[in-house]
UniProtKB/TrEMBL annotation:
<dbReference type="InterPro" id="IPR001563">
    <property type="entry name" value="Peptidase_S10"/>
</dbReference>
<keyword id="KW-1015">Disulfide bond</keyword>
<dbReference type="GO" id="GO:0006508">
    <property type="term" value="P:proteolysis"/>
</dbReference>
<comment type="similarity">
    <text>Belongs to the peptidase S10 family.</text>
</comment>
<keyword id="KW-0378">Hydrolase</keyword>
<keyword id="KW-0325">Glycoprotein</keyword>
<dbReference type="GO" id="GO:0004185">
    <property type="term" value="F:serine-type carboxypeptidase activity"/>
</dbReference>
<protein>
    <submittedName>
        <fullName>Uncharacterized protein</fullName>
    </submittedName>
</protein>
<dbReference type="GO" id="GO:0005576">
    <property type="term" value="C:extracellular region"/>
</dbReference>
<dbReference type="Pfam" id="PF00450">
    <property type="entry name" value="Peptidase_S10"/>
</dbReference>
<keyword id="KW-0732">Signal</keyword>
<keyword id="KW-0121">Carboxypeptidase</keyword>
<dbReference type="InterPro" id="IPR029058">
    <property type="entry name" value="AB_hydrolase_fold"/>
</dbReference>
<dbReference type="GO" id="GO:0019748">
    <property type="term" value="P:secondary metabolic process"/>
</dbReference>
<keyword id="KW-0645">Protease</keyword>
<dbReference type="GO" id="GO:0016747">
    <property type="term" value="F:acyltransferase activity, transferring groups other than amino-acyl groups"/>
</dbReference>
Amino acid sequence: MNLTEEIDPVEIVIVRCRRYVGLGETDDDMQVFYYFIKSENNPHKDPLMLWLTGGPGCSSFSGLAYQIGPLKFKIEEYIGSLPNLVLRPQSWTKVCNIIFVDLPLGTGFSYAKNLTAQRSDWKLVHHTHQFLRKWLIYHPEFLSNKFYIGADSYSGIPAPAIVQEILNGNEKGLQPWINLQGYLLGNPLTTNRESNDRISFAHGMALISDELYVSLRRNCEGEYIDIDSKNKMCLTDIHSFDEARINLFHILDRYCEDDAGMQQEALWRRSLFQKFKASFSAHLTVPDIRCQIYGFFLGEQWINDESVRKALHVREGTIGKWRRCYTDDFEHDISGSFEFHVNLSARGCRSLIYSGDHDAVVPFMSTQAWIRALNYSIVDDWRPWLVNGQVGGYTRTYSNQMTFATVKGSGHTAPEYKPDEGFAMFRENQPIEMNG
């Protein structure tokens, strides 16, 4: 099939296998929906990766259709018919088997009888672990494949805890044994304090004046998350920052009124995306086709079509209208993931951490700071990595087997804006060993 050829949405190139895995005492209690796509190279020998999108509560369909999967939406004017899909030539499934899983419960097409009781960071950790072992029981042909956890954005909080729980389960003799090799995190929230670096990042990128930067630092005293409502001078400065109309997800990209509210919420709140629901799932009008979120709009029109849901084997009556991100009633009971990185490093767990260097949601400088705080020596110092002879980004490797990489000119998240560079980084500049 030609890579530019349009695809019949009903003929989705997803492996014909189970769409749900049941958790809990009975399978009726909790049902986890997923998309599984085999490697185009050598599925029996290539790595197996479970992918979690951020949010918390954004469907892994985002990773599949907008970031690293084999399909993407053709950006064209919406006229009421089903949006068209085309193949993504830079799909990570060219060299890796990927399970795109809808967790936490309530995300995408995953559902539960008592949903509110199942939505928290730790519940997400436990459910992902349970899902994976059960999935491998259904698919024993992948038991020997090297396994990795992949995640981005908010999932930088629960993902390292998932890795730790899998390791603990292996040590306790839980079956089936998981051939865990490491993890990779893109533009990851880690400390829950990343917002405090966005002012310095914006100033360093010449997006705000020296005077406003100095005033913000003086009046807010370096605290831009939990702002005292009585601190009028700080609030005034923040309002001036808002008026800079910065697209936080990619500072060079178009600033769109449709997602302005979401962007400012993302800047000043601990939970990055509390307004995803309003911004991405409840548009009263079609977004500007020039905006990044236009693709999200097309995705909702496509996946809520009855014929598509039937092709995906979605169980009737379990989920109403599909939302790209469902953020309601989520309990944030893991304050940060740094301690898990400490533990995993001590246990020799390999990792790749990457950042789009034009991302102001989780600035690369925030990520570099917590990596430095792990206090491991550098074994391969800062150097460029290349794509077709040009710099795709920069990388550095530490003695704890952690690699940090930037993707030049990319945003939040990196492969979404720079697919060529994202794929090259995944294949060539990370600890996963590819086969051929």
